[in-house]
Specification:
Strand content: over 45%
Helix content: under 10%
Length: about 270
């Protein structure tokens, strides 16, 4: 697979959403735009989303241009809807494929792809929201990358449970955090992890909103070295964002998760 073919696949999903612009005041910060409790942390590289990104990357002192082409979505449903009450329950199934391409190569070939699928239980408890996810993760190296570099693939297949709590201490600001634990893995990995972050979104300015996001992920397997992802930009439509992204710490590519990297570049994403 080349980056050009991935771009052709993703373009309709990203461009079609630009026609639906946001209006009025910021939405409830602990609900998604469909009204379900717990707003998806769209700036987190762990969350399934439609995303195209162009980054300048540095991994273990090797500099190269890379592109990310992610495909992800979710199916959501209500279990108990009571907007005037203190408790609501909802469920969802989400999944995504997260692909990385080598922009410096002649064919812009696939470097790595990993997959995440999860079953979610979401709740609103008064002014707080919570989400519990049972997930599966696996990954693969690109065939051409394997042939060109001789890199040995590693098994990252695992299942785990993550619980996040979300609140809004200030208007337009959402904060979240919580622990994770591995339930099974194909190799002997430390079980405990922790994720935390924040998302901010302004009131509407002309046809856009300003936004900023920060996501931190730490894992005992990596000595709690934080993987940071930050982004600032403009929200142009219903779930579509264009911004500048920054990442550093352990690689977000599953096949290289023990290697440190720094990323800087442009990102276009859409989350339903």
């Amino acid at each position: 697979m080349s980056f050009a073919s991935a771009l052709l696949f993703l373009a309709p999903a990203l461009c079609g959403s630009l026609s639906a612009q946001t209006h009025g005041a910021p939405r409830d910060p602990i609900r998604d735009r469909n009204g379900h409790p717990f707003r998806t942390p769209a700036g987190s590289p762990l969350e399934p989303a439609h995303r195209i990104a162009f980054y300048r990357g540095v991994r273990d002192s090797v500099r190269n241009g890379i592109a990310l082409a992610d495909i992800g979505d979710r199916l959501q449903f209500w279990i108990r809807r009571d907007p005037d009450g203190s408790v609501e329950w909802a469920g969802a199934i989400h999944g995504g494929a997260f692909s990385r391409f080598d922009l410096g190569g002649p064919d812009q070939s696939l470097i790595e792809v990993h997959y995440r699928i999860g079953a979610l239980l979401r709740a609103r408890l008064g002014a707080l929201a919570a989400r519990a996810e049972i997930y599966h993760v696996s990954s693969h190296l690109g065939d051409e990358f394997l042939l060109d570099t001789g890199t040995e693939p590693i098994s990252t297949s695992r299942e785990g449970l993550e619980v996040l709590v979300q609140g809004s201490p200030l208007s337009g600001l959402t904060v979240y955090g919580g622990p994770g634990v591995l339930l099974r893995s194909s190799r002997d990995l430390e079980r405990v992890s922790f994720r935390a972050g924040a998302d901010w979104e302004s009131s509407r300015l002309a046809h856009a909103r300003l936004y900023a996001s920060l996501d931190l992920f730490g894992w005992a397997e990596l000595g709690w070295e934080p993987a940071l992802a930050a982004e600032v930009g403009a929200a142009l439509g219903r779930g579509t964002k264009i911004g500048f992204g920054l990442g550093f710490g352990p690689s977000r590519a599953e096949q290289f998760f023990r290697e440190s990297e720094r990323l800087l570049g442009l990102s276009i994403s859409h989350v339903r």
